[in-house]
Amino acid sequence: MRIYLMPNFTKPRTGELLRELCARMRELGISAAASPENCRTMAGEGIGPAEPEPDAARCDLILSIGGDGTLIHSAWRAALAKRPVVGVNLGRLGFLAQIEPEELGRFLLRLREGDYRREKRFAIQAELPGGEDGLPFALNDIVFSKAPEQNLADFEIFCNGRRIDHYSADGVIFSTSTGSTAYALSAGGPVMDPALEAILMVPICPHSIAIRPMVFSGEKTIALRSRGALQAVADGARRTTIPPGTTAVIGRSRLEAEFISFGEQEFFEILTAKIKQRS
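Below the sequence we write its predicted structure tokens.
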């Protein structure tokens, strides 16, 4: 077995955990690989061995080391490589990461033995007309927000070609069910079972108390247009500018994320435990 490591070196415990991880992988006969840049960082700290590998598709799975943000970033790489991903949690909450650091040895053995299931996660995309750069993949959300010089942005919303709403707001979030516990939740959206294939639309500070979140089937095509320029950001990382009057089309991504699950806890058990940590 060959595992592709995607560590977040901004986390204080990453180096320590990587050192333990590589040692345990070596004991279990599992090969470690990582991007050439990460391999250089690891080698500089005496961590390894890990083989430089620019193509994650040449590995069996991707292991993300960090918080949920790191796992979301890793999921983009995993979707491109068509490989499953699992996370070791070094963040505060870790809704998505399946492995806690103290359980590393047990779960590595389960990975080697294939003792897990693979769960496909619904992802969305935003397309722009005329071949302009869109956002082909978002596991959590795509956020459309007003340009810095604007006080408010106006939004026209269409579903399957029919106009369903028109309002002013700071922005609007289009979230997957996986992303319903992220920015969408902070903006007043509901928590959704991540197994659902659905698109959640949550306005950000709308200029009317009548505007509320809406949930669409994942098979729907949603379009958004504004008279002013908009900023669009996928999963808090990949971004593009939407010119005034341009229609962005939001729907199911052509790429698909796949998570590894060990089936030890249901989503709502994890959610309840993590929310209690936050309070």
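The chain has six helices and 19 strands.
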